[in-house]
Write a structure and sequence with these properties.
The complex is a heterodimer. Chain A contains 1 helix and 16 strands. Chain A is mainly beta. Chain B has 17 helices and 22 strands. Chain B is globular. Classes of the chains: A mainly beta, B alpha+beta.
Chain lengths: 166, 497
């Protein structure tokens, strides 16, 4: 079977299933077995030890799992997907143009920046109130605050566009 | 004794109170909001009653609805749990006037302790040490500036009716004051309906030590030793333990005596907690009194063997305390971890969703308090606390180990939780040697890659994660995993013969 490129909490590993009980990880061979109780609870045997694993969330190639008290954020790509991503990244000259969305439902309490203002990474743009606490929403990139989509004292849902950085 | 108790709360604490009612042979009546119709607390109670829409103000905070319902179903008493209406003096007064017993202190005691400024006044008068600062509320930014410079920076702005870190802001210099002052006022108004704010000197790098007290209506007061709750984030407790490894016998004597004096000062009965800040020289200052059952009460129950909720109910019904101070001893070391639906890697934002799968740890002296199980909804309406794990062992080091293993056994799917963050704290060096303050999380645990994880994340675990992620990627869409676990079950073979 073909290679899969998996990042585990940012660390890249190449996984290749040979057959139903052999797998190569970064070229090294392991014996494995897998079973499951349901769609969310799996058992993986690796050599002599069995691990309980839960699938926390799965969104396309992104998979979050919990095993032995540890969360692992994984991203899986086929060779083709990885190649396509590399090409795309080059074509965009790694220039960030991105809408920042609300991480949670809440209320926009205060907007601290103006449109067309230059901001640096980590700088707070607005205050979002949720669960009766005020949370600063900061810019994930340095750049130009091209647009603010929301106004003060308006409720937002999770995923609502807040502002755009270019 | 009461025949029926209405539990005006939800989640794990409602479940905890239902259990105590059952053990005492009292009918438990729970209330539920729209989203909580089939929540665990609605299902476990002997009776459950719809109380209103999902917004807390329509349901668990709706005073008149709760009191009317209590009358209608002929409940003798109301247990408020923690949060919601538990420390609302006006509500307690209404309950008292309705002829129903409130399981907690009198409205008068709550009122005396409810305003932090008034409580500071009272404590000062009764010789309980308080943090230097104002005992009156601050009205204007000008008077805030004046008071702050008199007290000396750094200072802490606090909501008079506050709790749980809401309306609380640290200010290190005058230029930060104006923004912090208005933010604190806004938060206080939203959270408590009162924008009064006052100023305290910021005690640098203190520990949070609190004393559990309990008193009956006959003037018998006991303390159940101290708890240490220094592991906090934005003044929300994360890990609590009892006793504190920092407190020696002499300090324990002084602080528990102060706590009982504080309780006596407001004519307190039922269970309550007096919170203190303790500096590195073991000087302590009164912070506030929580006039209710605490989230972290299980650690005290573990080390004393006393069931605080049953004791609360008995006291409210007019019984005397079932034990004396000299009967109490510290039986071991207990730790509690609060498991929250939140994302520590993303500024601890609360997470909502469905619990798709839930497996709890178990073993000797491991206790779980929970309000959720598989298929439970975690909604945005309420606190994101999923469950509490508490452990008891002889010594602190062994208790930490037991907790670490318990966290390894905890499985939860569908929503992310703070489980691995809790593990990082348990493996933190300062946490282990006891040399930490309430700033531990902010100073030590918000940046990753300092090596805390290396003691428990190894290559094997990462490989397992990689195999699993790759496996899920290759599954055809809509694949339902086959159940092949029990294919070597000899009982099945026998049945087929």
């Amino acid at each position: 079977m073909s290679e899969l490129f998996v990042t585990v909490n940012g660390k890249e590993k190449v996984v290749q299933f040979i057959n139903s009980d052999k797998v190569l990880i970064d070229g090294k061979e392991y014996h494995y077995d897998m079973s499951s109780e349901n769609e969310f609870h799996y058992f993986i045997r690796l050599n002599k030890k069995t691990f309980d694993i839960t699938k926390v969330v799965k969104d396309k190639n992104k998979i979050a799992i919990l095993t032995e008290g540890n969360y692992f954020e994984c991203n899986v790509q086929t060779k083709l997907e990885k190649y396509a991503e590399t090409i795309l990244a080059h074509s965009e000259k790694s220039h960030h143009k991105e809408d920042v969305v609300s991480p949670m439902p809440g209320m926009v309490l205060k907007i601290q920046k103006n449109e067309n203002e230059e901001i640096t990474i980590g700088e707070p743009v607005l205050i979002l109130e949720a669960m009766k606490m005020e949370n600063e929403v900061t810019s994930p990139y340095s750049g130009l605050l091209k647009k603010i989509y929301v106004s003060e004292n308006t409720p937002v849902e999770k995923g609502t566009k807040l502002f755009r950085i270019e | 004794m009461f025949k029926k108790i209405l539990i005006a709360n939800r989640g794990e604490i409602a479940v905890r109170i239902i259990r105590a009612c059952k053990e005492l042979g009292i009918i438990s009546a729970s209330v539920y909001s729209e989203v909580d119709k089939y929540a665990l607390h609605s299902r476990l109670a002997d009776e459950s009653h719809f109380i209103g829409e999902s917004l807390p103000s329509e349901s668990y905070l709706n005073q008149n609805k709760i009191i009317d319902l209590a009358k209608e179903i002929k409940a003798d008493a109301i247990h408020p749990g923690y949060g919601f209406l538990s420390e609302n003096a006006a509500f307690i007064k209404k309950v008292e006037e309705s002829g129903i017993v409130f399981i907690g202190p009198s409205s008068r005691s709550v009122e005396m302790m409810g305003s932090k400024t008034a409580a500071r006044h009272l404590m000062k008068k009764h010789g309980v040490p308080i943090v230097p600062g104002t005992t009156e509320k601050i009205i204007s930014i000008d008077s805030a500036k004046k008071n702050a410079s008199e007290i000396g920076y750094p200072i802490l702005l606090k909501a008079s009716s506050g709790g749980g870190g809401k309306g609380m802001k640290r200010v290190f210099a005058e230029e930060e004051l104006e923004a912090a002052f208005s933010s604190a006022q806004r938060e206080a108004l939203k959270a408590f309906g009162d924008d009064s704010v006052y100023i305290e000197k910021l005690v640098e790098n203190p520990k949070h030590i609190e004393v559990q007290i309990i008193a009956d209506k006959f003037g018998n007061y006991c303390h159940l030793f101290e708890r240490e709750c220094s592991v906090q984030r934005r003044h929300q407790k994360v890990i609590e333990e009892a006793p504190s490894s920092f407190v020696d016998d002499e300090t324990r004597n002084r602080i528990t005596t102060a706590a009982i004096n504080a309780a006596k000062a407001c004519g307190y009965y039922n269970a309550g907690t007096i919170e203190f800040l303790m500096d590195k020289n073991k000087n302590f200052y009164f912070l506030e009194m929580n006039t209710r059952l605490q989230v972290e009460h299980p650690v005290t129950e573990f080390i004393t063997g006393i069931d605080l909720v049953k004791e609360q109910i008995k006291i409210a019904s007019g019984e005397r305390l079932s034990f004396k101070q000299e009967d109490l001893r510290i039986l071991g070391h207990a730790i509690e971890c609060r498991v929250y639906a939140e994302d520590p890697e993303n500024n601890f934002l609360p997470i909502t969703g469905t619990v798709e799968y839930h497996r709890l740890p178990s073993g000797p002296n491991i206790r779980i308090d929970r309000g959720i199980e598989t298929s439970s909804e975690v909604s945005r309406f309420y606190d994101p606390l999923l469950s509490k794990i508490s452990v008891l062992e002889k010594q602190r080091t062994e208790a930490i180990k037991r907790m670490d293993i318990a966290l390894n056994d905890y499985l939860i799917a569908g929503i992310k939780s703070n489980i691995s963050f809790l593990k990082r704290i348990l493996h933190n060096k300062k946490f282990n040697n006891g040399e930490y303050s309430i700033n531990l999380i902010e100073e030590d645990l918000l940046t990753y890659g300092r090596g805390d994880e290396s003691s428990f994340i190894n290559e094997e675990l990462e490989n397992v994660a990689a195999i699993f992620a790759a496996y899920l990627k290759q599954l055809p869409k809509n694949h339902v995993p086959s159940k092949k676990v029990y294919n070597t079950n000899k009982w099945a073979d026998i049945q087929h013969e």
